[in-house]
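Here is the promised in-class demo. Please do not try to memorize the tokens; focus on the logic of going from shape to residues.
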């Protein structure tokens, strides 16, 4: 495969830095070009538009995460798969904090916004990897989860992303131990049961 031109990579890097700092709507094409030291025709040559740049950025930079999640969700038993999903997501966020911070903001962008619509397929792919784990468990276990796999998958993904958001603000860590703790919290609750007086 032919390597990507350095200018193309640099444009993606500068766009990510700016989008992460100011949001997609808060950054113009001219600002990206100025920071990358190129003219608008260069950006349009590689990406066609600001939206094309965003779509390329998300597709190329998130692909390793989604591929790793799809492998992780195939693990058994169920709790091992959950730990693998959390650990994989934590590791990616730890290695790509700027990208993951921006990716998180797109979950909550206005529904009809250009950025939210560009991110939708990536959010869906992320969710489907989690949902596949819960769906397989539902089918195999018969533990009364019938029809609830999507809600449970969304809840678990929300817990994982919440932990990442806290960690990106320096209030938590993103490692194997915190992944296991997050799964334990999801499966067993955040606090141990209170003991009764006189027990």
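The designed amino acids, position by position:
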């Amino acid at each position: 495969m032919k390597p990507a031109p350095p200018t193309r990579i640099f444009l993606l890097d500068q766009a990510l830095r700016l989008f992460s700092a100011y949001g997609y709507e808060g950054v113009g094409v001219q600002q990206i070009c100025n920071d990358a030291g190129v003219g608008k025709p260069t950006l349009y040559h590689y990406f066609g538009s600001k939206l094309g740049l965003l779509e390329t950025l998300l597709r190329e930079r998130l692909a390793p995460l989604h591929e790793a999640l799809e492998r992780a969700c195939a693990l058994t038993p169920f709790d091992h798969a959950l730990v693998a999903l959390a650990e994989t997501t934590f590791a990616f966020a730890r290695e790509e904090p700027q990208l993951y911070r921006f990716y998180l903001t797109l979950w909550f962008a206005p529904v009809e916004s250009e950025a939210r619509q560009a991110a939708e397929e990536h959010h869906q792919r992320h969710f489907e990897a989690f949902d596949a784990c819960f769906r397989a468990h539902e089918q195999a276990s018969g533990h009364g989860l019938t029809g609830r796999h999507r809600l449970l998958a969304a809840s678990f993904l929300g817990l994982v992303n919440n932990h990442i958001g806290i960690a990106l603000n320096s209030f938590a860590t993103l490692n194997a131990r915190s992944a296991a703790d997050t799964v334990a919290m999801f499966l067993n609750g955040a606090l141990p049961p209170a003991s009764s007086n006189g027990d």
